[in-house]
Amino acid sequence: MTQAPDTAARRLVETLVINGVDHVFCVPGESYLAVLDALYDVRDQIKLVICRHEAGAANMAEAYGKLTGKPGICMVTRGPGATHASIGVHTAHQDSTPMILFVGQVGLADRGRGAFQEVDYREVFGGLAKWATEIESPERTVEVVERAFATALQGRMGPVVIALPEDLLHDQGGPEPKQAVTPARAAPSPAFLAELNERLSKAERPLLVLGGSGWTDEAAAAIGDWSERHGLPVALSFRRKDILSNDRPNYAGDLGLGCNPKLTARAKGADLVIALGARLGENPTQGYSLFDRTETGGRLVHIHPGPEELGRVWPTLMAAVSDNSLAALALSELKPGRSWHDEAETAHADYLAFSTPVAVTGAVNMSECMKTLGEVLEPTAVVTNGAGNFAAWLHRFYGHKACRTQLAPTSGAMGYGVPAAVAAAIMEPGRQVVNIAGDGDFMMAAQELATLVQYDAKAVFVVVDNGTYGTIRMHQERDYPARVSGTDLKNPDFVRFAEAFGLTAARVETTEGFRPALEAALAADGPALIHLITSPEDIAPGRTISQLRAG
User: What fold characterizes domain 8-170?
Assistant: First the structure.
């Protein structure tokens, strides 16, 4: 069967091509076979990545969005496929990542009958996505897809979900697309910049906080150079440590989970806080305790691409709706007429002290291993993680040196790091890619090793195995000491597991064994895995289970 040249399925794919899509991550389904067939004809322009689970496919698309700033494209089938993929949509929403999820749907004539795998996608994804819709007229296919690109990219970036009724895809799809979508981007007004410059010139203890998505290398470098030139201390938001090099002399650390107490104190004591791109949600504000709502109106300058985020929690002294990169470029032209180099020097010294390895009780010191990771990897290496206490060691002791080198979910989603690493390795085969995963985190997406191997991609996976769901265990021991319930794990032999997929693998049980294992893994001809055995007693940096039980 050969499709007509102007079907809705072909118009959809033509719209992807004209908008520069070069990868589509999918799990196939009979509900959108017409789209898969149309993709066959553009296989020299769009690489179709076949994944092993819809959650993996959605997370790969989300990782693509983080790395490129363009919408990551995911395609799954109806019902179970869509609900499996919902985790990636949630992550994209929480992380402000551009993404478009296409979901197969029952035929138009059968909607509302409880047909096989039928789901109301507007209802299911209405609270997760920026826009959830269904193509109901084949002639409007291009219109809907173009709107999806605009919606995903404009304002606060995020995910869009489009349902594709199976029968509609074979119908005439209306006019072909004529040009790529050009998203609207706001910038700070001259009046806002002039007032900010005046307030900055009078500040004694200012703090710049950067976060959010859509950062270009140029903008990150510009605001980094400007802040460094003036000695303005800079903090990065939760899991946004790659916006600026952590080696900059004015870098103060990240406002994430397990934040440096001295950085917390600095933020509390700042007389002017300039938050650019950061939403200032629960995690970067330490459970909404970093600031006092009664006083932020006198010292908080909030710049964000989404107007709905301004004043959402924190009253502001000044606020502006702006694209993050355009705002950064504009701020880098300010001339406050003063500097704060003493403040910057102290802030960076506090960061260096906090990121110095700490003592542990077990044979593997994760703080030393993460420091080693930073010493061995190239500055442009992509490091990925999901969620779990293992990540606290990574974020605290590993320093990022270049923009777009961190793939990590601010949503706190387990199972993200493996598919993110797979996506990065497939997209950019010349870059080092390393995934750090807890044992529980790894097993939620380990099947995607097959995807990595299928596409001859190379990445290194470090599985941190302490035999427990570490984050939950930490909270459990704090609230219910010595009453372990529901958190112990019985793990496979991860070396043999990895070898079954064709990876080289090694087991490491000492700190000293990590560097040679890492160097060997990076030098291997193909992908590799390190099974790193750690003690559950060392549940978090500077915290043991015995201490938690003792209160």
Answer: Rossmann fold (3.40.50)
Residue 83: the pLDDT is 95
Listing DSSP states for 2-54 in one string gives ---TTBHHHHHHHHHHHTT--EEEE---GGGHHHHHHHHTTTTTSEEEE-SSH
- Predicted TM-score of the model (pTM): 0.96
Q: What is the domain class of 357-550 according to CATH?
A: alpha beta
Where in the chain are the domains? 8-170, 190-353, 357-550
What are the tens digits of pLDDT across the range 502-531? 999 999 999 999 999 999 999 999 999 999
Dihedral in degrees, nearest 10, Cα atoms 32, 33, 37, 38: -20
Q: What is the pLDDT of residue 13?
A: 98
CA distance 162 to 144: 8
Range 12-30 average pLDDT:
97
DSSP at 479: H
Per-residue pLDDT reduced to its tens digit, 195-242: 999 999 999 999 999 999 999 999 999 999 999 999 999 999 999 999
Q: Please say if the pLDDT value at position 182 is more than 70.
A: yes
> Does the domain made of 190-353 have the CATH classification 3.40.50.1220?
yes
Helix-strand-coil split of the chain, %, nearest 5: 40, 15, 45
Whether 234 and 263 have beta carbons less than 8 Å apart is answered as no
Same fold, 8-170 and 357-550: yes
Report which of 483, 461, 426 is spatially closest to residue 57, judged by C-alpha positions.
426
Sheet holding 99-105, edge to edge: 47-50, 23-26, 72-76, 99-105, 159-165, 131-134
